[in-house]
Amino acid sequence: MSYRPLVLLGAAALSLSLAACSSSGDSGGGEGGRTGVDVWLMRGSVSAAFQKQFETGFEKAHPDLDLKIQIQEWNGIGEKVTAALASNDAPDVIEVGNTQVAQYAQSEGLTDLSDKVAELGGDAWVKGLAEPGTYEKKQYGIPYYAANRVVVYRKDLFEKAGVDASKITTREQWIKATEKVDKGATQGIYLPGQNWYALAGFIWDEGGDLAVNRNGKWQGGLDSPQALKGMEFYERLQALGKGPKDSDEAQPPQAEVMAKGDTAQIIAVPGAADIVTENNPELKDKLGFFPIPGKSADKPGAVFTGGSDLVVPAAAAHQDEAYTMIKELTGDAWQKKLARTMSYVPNKVTLAEAVNSEPGAAAMAIGAVNGRATPNTPEWAAVEAKNPIKNYMTAVLTGGNAKSEAAKASRTITGALAGGS
Amino acid sequence: MSIVHEPGTPPPAAAPAARRRPRPPAGRPRASDRNSPWAYLLIAPAVAGMLYLLLYPLARAVVISFQDFRLRQLIVGDASFVGLRNYRELLGDARFWEVVRRTFLFMAVNVVLIMVLAMLVALMIERLGRFGRTVVLGSLVLVWAMPVIAATTVFQWLFHSRFGIVNEVLVSLGFSSYEGYAWLAHDKAAFAIIVTLIVWQSVPFAAITLYSALTTVPRELYESARIDGAGAGRLFRSVTFPLIRPLFMLVLSLEVIWTFKAFVQIWVMTKGGPGDATTILPVYAVQTALSNQRYDLSSAASMVTVLLMSGVLVFYFRQLFRQEGEHL
Amino acid sequence: MTTAPVKTAAPAAGSRAPRAGRGRPVRWIRRSPLYLAATVTVVLCLFPVYWMVTTAFKPSQDIQSYDPRLVPGSWTLRHFQDAVSADGFGLFWRNSILVTLSAVLLALLVALGAAYAVARLRWRGRRQFMLAVFLAQMAPWESLIIPIYIISRDTDMLDRLPTLTLIYFMITLPFTVVVLRGFLASIPPELEEAAQVDGCTRLGAFRRVAFPLLAPGLMATSLFGFITAWNEFTYANFLIIKEQDSRTLPVWLSSFQSTFGTDWGATMAASTLFALPALIIFLVLQRHVTSGLAAGSVKG
């Protein structure tokens, strides 16, 4: 009977914990007496190259600050931000979706930045970012960037199939073109089953909506005839590729799927193209953009105007430094660079021309004309948290009855919009 | 929370060495030590740990369940008491009862599968030769040691809709409808996968414990029963099972409790979806807290869960004390 | 399986020898259902583990093929390189080991004292103490996460590994007490008394006489504690917020998928690396594990 292994184990553990004692304690603060500024940005919000560029530039301009950017995963981000806002030592700046700001502000988790609006040039802000960033007339979220989805396509694969992307102006033409490209190893379009932003666009085109307000009461709208038509189109399009029916565009990240080389199209923000080429440099110059086609040639497809705001948690230790960081990142100089590198819509209308020459941004601008938002109620966040729309889409795509599934999902949406608070 | 169904945690009763052996009389604590102050000193750290790390948080959870406690209260901390409101809201919610019903179904399916399979495996190990026994025990231990998160990830990969080996095998066996079948998108299939995963993780512990119980059955009993002409089935019913019954019931109670609390596998794999298909009570509680930011309602749901579980607990403790009584 | 011939049901290892050698072929045929069952069991147990490991070694194009092979045609270490070179892997590994081992050691230390008090000393409240320990083992940890978050925050213990250590200590403690108490009770105190007569102090007697006999128990409990703490995900995920350098492996593994996307090879390599310590320790000490569990009745 030998207990030597245990003793060894114990000794190893002890030495390890001792080692830990000596090495811990270097967290927090900054290096060399500088103040650390912790910033959370979302995955895909900035490219690795831009992040590095910004970090270097920022620290050069503010030698007393040590900028620490952490990239957060979308998966489970709600919990993470909640835990951070409620802690005593929150990150100094957090990027949150524009529609999320209100609920955090309502909970008194954010610093009121109203007095900085003028200094930041707030009167020029893009409305779709600035307005959701307010709560009870106070500004909590500072507009960071906006974007809407376009079609990112492979010029070479389209050419090979004999398709001219510039001629695609209606949905039917789009389907025809995609069918032509969807041959052999090439996927016509990689459309995962749960890209509900894309579905929302199709539903809006048909004249339906995700939820409608009837006499002050919100009701899920997926089961309206118009919405069902939108889903029908989604199903047709989805079938022209190998997108998984049971996941969304973030899992796996669709840009990385496209980088593998056999995907002809994805529906994404133009910035996705940079991630594609970052993963597969061979595809540089092979990517093109066109706005999501509408039902008829005279009107582009409706798109969800998405974007992010930057917020400062009330519990952040370095409020002034946080503001400095926000001022830099949302300032004209970096906004122009960001918009150009990531093909975003900059946070100010006055900067729009900065991206005019970009093909991605140009396509985005055409689509933005028909930009829409999710139902305008604070409870919408509860719907997204559980997202019955995604379940509905997967159910229909895997053979479920569209009508009854839509009714089921609409009931869930109605419940979420009525419940909550 | 990974301890909610921890394959690496054997039941208390399975471990003590002396339980089924006649206890040497000298093993009893000596009278001279009556109320030794040393004893209190020795248990002090354990008691302090239980008070501060267990009882205190539990009390806080109970308090929250009687408060209006949402994101704002979590951040600012000025929660006010609302009496039984959360419980009323919870018990009046049809979805909650649906979840309760599903939890019991989930538990029943799991526990029956686990116990039947584990018993069969244990009987099988007993009949194997030394080599076979070592191999089977070795593989059981391997599964048992497999971390929950790793196992869950592997199962996601096995049942992956496009490249999963399960779909490939099914298609090559002629079930062409499984080409690209999205398991986790279908209510029943997702439920079945979670059950498979939990059974796979739980059988080793139950089987090894039951096997160790089987080895304590005196051989002479078999001999005499066989001389009486008992068949294998009767032998099991009338000789083997009655003897291992106490330990069997103990393992059963533990599996009931563990599957009742199963959380991590479900959370990582489906988050309770599709729809509510795999939402059982612990998942419901976490969903309520994290997605809807209703920490009060979530706490109330947890308390109801604890109450429901305490029924099983009472049964478990009766078993435990029947076995351990004389030690205390 | 209950239909297998009962004649062979011989649990005691020693009694098996005389039967060997006689009527072999018949016995093999008669026992073939048993062997089949055993084979199926082993395959069902091992296949997911096997698949995890081989996927980790397969080149990506073999993984994403519609014609998967049971045995990899070619082997690669690339996925392991990807996993190991992923951000902070070494750090998270260290964190996990650190938290796990310190929690287990702390639990062993505290439990040894408590177990000794329960098994060797007589005092008022002994029964109540054991009842509390049994109850603690059933604690609804999943319901305690919000209160523990609040308590940790209010005592400035968020984002710190020692917080996790304390929680894992508490999760493993009750079980450790119960098992060690069982083992201690089986060691006759006379042995220690004899040593005391020979001039040892009480502590010395315990250390020289009882402690070595406790080895299997210590081994078993530390292993179970190790697995529990090594696995823990939810608390690690929720209590480590800003200090991403303090994350542990389970959290890293769960975020790994979203980071690596379609790279199942790297994901499986990461899972393998995560499972490895537990698997190795269990396999090496398998005898002690089962004997710790079966309390000496398994003499494999």
Automatic annotation (TrEMBL), chain A:
Keyword Signal: yes
Signal sequence residues: 1-19
Keyword Transport: yes
Superkingdom, natural source: Bacteria
Keywords: Signal, Transport
PROSITE patterns: PROKAR_LIPOPROTEIN
Pfam families noted in UniProt: SBP_bac_1
UniProt similarity note: Belongs to the bacterial solute-binding protein 1 family.
Name this protein carries in UniProt: Extracellular solute-binding protein
Organism: Streptomyces physcomitrii
